Amino acid sequence: MAAIIADNLVRRFDAFTAVDGISFTVQPGEIFGFLGPNGSGKTVTIKMLCGILPLSGGTAHVDGIDVGQDPDAVRARIGYMSQKFALYDDLTVRENLRFYGMVYDLYGRRLERRMDDIIARINIETYLGRQAGKLSGGWKQRLALGCALLHEPTVLFLDEPTAGIDPVARRQLWDLLFELSGHGITFFVTTHYMDEAERCSHLAYIYYGRIIADGTPAELRRLPGITPERTYRLEITAGEVTAALRQARQIPAVRSATIFGRSIHALVDDACPQDQLTQMLTHSGVKIEEVRTLLPSLEDVFVELSERRQKELEAA
Amino acid sequence: MNPMLGFRAMVYKEVLHALRDRFALIFAFMMPLFQMVILGFAVDTNVRQVPTAIFDQSGLTSGDGTAGSSASREFIDRLRNADTFHVYKFVHSDAEMNEEMVAGRARVAVKFPPEFARDLLRGETAQVLVLVDGSDSSVAGQAVTVTGQIGLDESLRRLLGEQAARPIEVRPKIMFNPASRSPNFFLPGMVAILLIFVTTMLTAFSVVREKERGTLEQLLVTPVRPLALMLGKITPYFALGVAEVCALLLFMNFVFEVPIHGNPLLLTLLSSCYLFVNLTIGVLISTKANSQAEAMQLAMMIMLPSIFLSGYIFPRDNMPWIFFGLSYLVPATYMVNISRGVILRGAGPAELWLDALVLFVLGVVVLLLAVRRFKSMIV
Ligand SMILES: Nc1ncnc2c1ncn2[C@@H]1O[C@H](COP(=O)(O)OP(=O)(O)O)[C@@H](O)[C@H]1O
Ligand SMILES: [Mg+2]
Prior knowledge:
The complex is a heterodimer. By secondary structure, chain A is an alpha/beta fold. Chain A contains eleven helices and 14 strands. The model of chain A has no long low-confidence stretch (mean pLDDT 92). Chain B has two domains: 50-175, abc type-2 transporter like domain (abc type-2 transporter like fold); 181-378, no CATH class. Chain B contains 16 helices and five strands. Chain B has helices at residues 7-20, 22-46, 59-62, 70-81, 94-102, 115-121, 139-161, 182-198, 200-213, 215-220, 226-254, 264-288, 292-309, 321-327, 331-345, 349-377, and strands at residues 50-56, 85-91, 108-112, 126-132, 168-170. The site of magnesium ion has 4 residues of chain A, from helix 1. Magnesium ion is lined by residues 42-43, 83, 159 of chain A.
């Protein structure tokens, strides 16, 4: 049984349609990455799935339960971390955990055991007596995650869990998510970071209320048309990369070229195979260190798909 | 599903919030006591030594000339001996009396008409005209003025009461207050108003604050039931309200020496119905308001009718019928009645059960409204 099934979800606010008939399925244990520009309807979708925003149309099942029919049963099985830190600043870490445990009807020994378990898992022993408002961003998010986990939910919704926290804390949080997903918890995560998208086992890309891509990262990179027909992508690492870029752009077969760190990512016509291109570059004085073919990055995929969708919208 | 799921969690959390913000808690608790002191003393001093002018025409018919009649002189002596009035001048014409009032030198003028002594002699009802300065338009000023007026009436009545054989009529109507001290009359009613500060105000903010911080949204995703959420929020403030009732009664009794004729325990018990309504009104306000400022405005809108329609300042009997009718919808009306009943008249459960019941029913209705509004915010 799928963990989440969204079937033609619609949400309108007066005349404005924020979510316009989206459908997707998330399997148990997946880390489902939900991406899209700001204002595309990610938060609205999560709220509908969590049963705090009524649907204007369509149906949603979470852990086998129809959200529209029995939102209470859904709430008892899911965890939710909103995009804004929403714990009590004036309560300590331990008090926040205890409160959320009690809200889920955990008391006495069982509550203490669950709390100890969560405290060990999010590794927050040192800060137990500290007020939540005085924690750093990374620790706040770990605590929020801990509170969302207390009642052993099967599905967790995380709305931009890593927005505004430092890279180390970001990495650690993701490591934690992987560990938990290994225990069979399904994650629904929204994010803006492409490196996080790469780590998801399943991605969907929503563009102003419509899903325009859905699949594993590998599938998305191989979508037809992301790399234009009769072209291929190359990563060229070279000394003096800016000079190399200038030279590369003068070759007619190079459709486009951009710098990534010490390398150039180029889109090249099939008519000009890799060997021929390297020769041409070496000829014009570029010291090539390494050349390899490249799949499009997820960013390439999303940019291309967004542009395509935008053209459709303008045409209509 | 258990409709009280999450209740204990909410109480736990609210108590922690209150204890964390101890300063705000103490402040909320002390404010009604301070207000009682300030208003209580203002009332107390204002009905002492009120500058009073006398215009006595009664000598004209009794043959005593402009010095007044023997009947009026007796009355004036009593006024002079009463602490409430300071007779500083005798005037000799309506114009002069008017001028004293307009100039603000006299806050009260007492006029004995020419027929005064004659009517008394004939055994008819004699009238005394009392003018009270009511020009101060600020709310506080009005409160003082009106209670001053009450005190005035009381004193006049007492002075005249001792002369039972002589029917003298003084308007306006006189209120029930055995000790003839206006704090006795004023403070029991004031309790109803002061309690709003630790009930409606506090709960109105507590839900809105969670809305503003986003913690409410987080709570809505948990299985906590709306009824449990609201009752959980109300409970700690209910305890605070009961403590406040006790503190106010002690203050009234020891600082202002207002005797409590009835059973203070009964009063506390009946007040709890009033606390309950006010707390639920606060919760209803917060389901409507989106910011703390908005909650404040709505709470003030509750405050005003409580002050003006409850009978705390203006006697309900003298109200235009529309306000009289509306006053039945104001919880403070019942509380003023309960408080005055127990404190001044020594009333018991037999007289006051209906007021308490009305309050309780109002509370339940408001709570259900709040729960319904709250549910419409979620699925
Ligand atoms: N309560 C609401 N009332 C009206 N419009 C809303 C409401 N919530 C969200 N929207 C609109 O719906 C669109 C999607 O919002 P949201 O889901 O928050 O975007 P994001 O993908 O950045 O999370 C936005 O245009 C937003 O303005
Ligand atoms: Mg969002």
